[in-house]
Design a protein that fits this description.
The complex is a heterodimer of chains A (about 250) and B (about 290). By secondary structure, chain A is an all-alpha fold. Chain A has eleven helices and no strands. Chain A has one domain. Chain A starts with 12 loop residues before the first helix and ends in an 11-residue tail after the last helix. The radius of gyration of chain B is 22 Å and the shape is globular. The model of chain B has no long low-confidence stretch (mean pLDDT about 90). Classes of the chains: A mainly alpha (about 250), B alpha/beta (about 290). The interface of A and B includes residues 45, 114, 119 and 248 of A.
Chain lengths: ~250, ~290
């Protein structure tokens, strides 16, 4: 049987490339970086709605102020090591109290389901707030550390600053890990308590070792730990932005 | 199009839904089942509030969980318990939610006025919601679900708290909306969806029972629904023998509507089955357990 042969003209290279680009641009979703995502969210949602609760803003400043002023309760003749210890212990507390408040406030509220179905959901808003809280914490901790350095002449500002930021990011990573890893309130409370108890008990049991550790660890080591924790913190926040639920609400 | 593929949802040892397969195109779908049957679980999975334990839900071939905010941009959702901030006015709350939905301020202003008029709340748009009745709150909930002009509208028990007039207005609104989008309504009130749904979905024993038009579902009870008059003295015996759908007192006797599959008796009058009859028949055991 005679078969009719069809002549199909082969498109030229330029047409093929154009078509490939067209298919890829329409079929593949471009990857949005964490930074661009946050920027887009900020421009679309706006500060006014990201921090919609005026009471919350007032609370942020009161908490930040009162926690940092704890450092000034130290007696004037206190040992410099004890000051470093106190900075290490207190530095993450501003971040912790603000983040827990923001998290519980959003996830326990009756508006949770409505807000979860929006383009920017509860976890994305909470992640953004945590980032802002970490910046607030750095700023307030830096101010507090500067005042402490001025008040206690034996305190080295750079070391105190490094201890403060290392402690803040080390704790933040632990906190976010607990929040997303186990989805349980008890687990988060456990991690926070562990941080406080471990720090206090090392200070009580072997004060010399603890103080020497904080005072003698080279600043380069602090800087490296700091960078590592900062990276971990960024990654954890990014994970929270894309957090998917299996059972129900996180942190119950 | 939304496709629900082999979806199961388990909470520890408890299975809420098993092996659910569904397809939704544009139009209005009524998810009808008694309380506790798994309607809200299915609705929450469709709204990505929770994820299936196994299986997946796709929108135009893509997993809705992976689509993440691209899916939520298409979604309008009213949860069973619509939460709100008591000190906000409807306008304030809708502006807030519009921002979370990524709608610009200018667009939101126009849309909010239009929607508040649609749900008859224009007069109170600046009043604090703590003074609102349940029906008014529910209307704010319906308005927020429509803010982003969603392609997929999912409403969980939307008529709860609405009076008959508001229900009728709501049905008209839904019929209009379903012309160009996919609307899924979960309810246990048959009259809410009987006259407007293109298809009804019924879930029983954690599995899909029906997904069909009202007419086709009613066909399952064809030649099985009757009405007859019974003396009060015979009523208890009658109740034991048949599945009673309704009882009405008239001139000292009872007119009963019931189901019987088999030979009919002479005095029984065959009647056309309604969706309510199928609902009562299919869920008779669950209703007795629930009493």
């Amino acid at each position: 049987m005679h078969k009719e042969k069809f002549e199909i003209p082969m498109p030229d290279g330029e047409t093929i490339q154009k078509q490939v680009k067209l298919i890829v641009s329409q079929g593949v979703q471009p990857k949005v970086s964490f930074y661009s995502f946050l920027r887009e969210m900020m421009s679309q949602v706006g500060w006014r709605h990201l921090f919609s609760d005026r009471l919350e803003l007032g609370l942020i400043f009161i908490i930040a102020l009162s926690i940092n002023s704890l450092l000034f309760l130290l007696p004037a003749n206190v040992d410099v090591q004890a000051i470093y210890g106190a900075i290490f212990l207190i530095s993450p507390l501003v971040f912790l109290s603000l983040s827990i408040y923001a998290f519980v406030n959003k996830t326990e509220n009756a508006t949770y389901e409505v807000e979860m179905a929006c383009k920017y959901n509860v976890y994305q808003i909470v992640a953004f707030r945590m980032l802002v809280f970490s910046i607030i914490s750095i700023v307030t901790n830096t101010i507090a550390v500067s005042l402490v350095a001025m008040h206690f002449p034996n305190v080295e500002f750079l070391r105190a600053y490094m201890i403060s930021t290392t402690s803040l990011f080390l704790f933040s990573v632990l906190f976010l890990y607990a929040l997303m890893g186990r989805h349980s309130r008890k687990y988060v409370i456990g991690i926070v308590s562990l941080w406080l108890i471990a720090n206090l008990s090392v200070q009580v049991v072997d004060a010399n070792f603890y103080s020497a550790f904080l005072k003698k660890t080279p600043l380069v080591v602090y800087a490296l730990v700091n960078l590592g924790c900062l990276y971990g913190f960024g990654k954890s926040l990014k994970k929270l932005v894309h957090f998917k639920q299996m059972e129900g609400v996180l942190f119950r | 199009m939304i496709v629900v593929k082999d979806v199961c949802k388990r909470y520890g040892d408890f299975t809420a839904l098993e092996d659910i397969n569904l397809e939704f195109t544009n139009g209005l779908y009524g998810l009808l089942a008694p309380n506790g049957a798994g309607k809200t679980t299915l609705i929450k999975m469709l709204a990505t509030l929770i994820s299936p334990s196994s299986g997946e839900i796709q929108y135009n071939g893509e997993n809705i969980v992976s689509m993440d905010q691209r899916y939520r941009e298409l979604l309008g959702f009213l949860p069973q318990q619509f939460g709100f901030y008591k000190n906000y006015s409807p306008a304030q709350y809708l502006f807030y939610l519009a921002a979370l939905k990524g709608i610009s301020k200018q667009q939101a202003r126009i849309k909010i006025d239009e929607l508040l008029a649609k749900v008859a709340l224009s007069d109170v748009k600046h009043k604090k919601m703590k003074k609102f009745s349940g029906g008014m709150i529910q209307r704010v909930g319906i308005a927020q679900a429509l803010l982003n002009d969603p392609k997929i509208l999912i409403l969980d028990e939307p008529t709860a708290g609405l009076d008959p007039k508001e229900r009728a207005r709501f049905r008209h609104l839904l019929t209009d909306l379903a012309r160009e989008r996919l609307v899924i309504i979960s309810t246990h009130i048959v009259s809410d969806i009987e006259s407007i749904a293109n298809e009804i979905i019924m879930i029983k024993n954690k599995r899909l029972l029906y997904k069909d038009s009202v007419e086709q579902i009613c066909e399952t009870l064809r030649d099985a629904v009757y009405e007859t008059t019974v003396d009060f003295s015979q009523l208890d015996e009658f109740r034991k023998r048949f599945v009673l759908l309704s009882e009405k007192q008239e001139y000292g006797k009872m007119i009963v509507r019931f189901i019987h599959k088999g030979d009919k008796e002479e005095e029984w009058i065959p009647v056309h089955p309604q969706l309510e009859d199928v609902f009562l028949y299919e869920y008779q055991d669950e209703m007795v357990e629930g009493l």
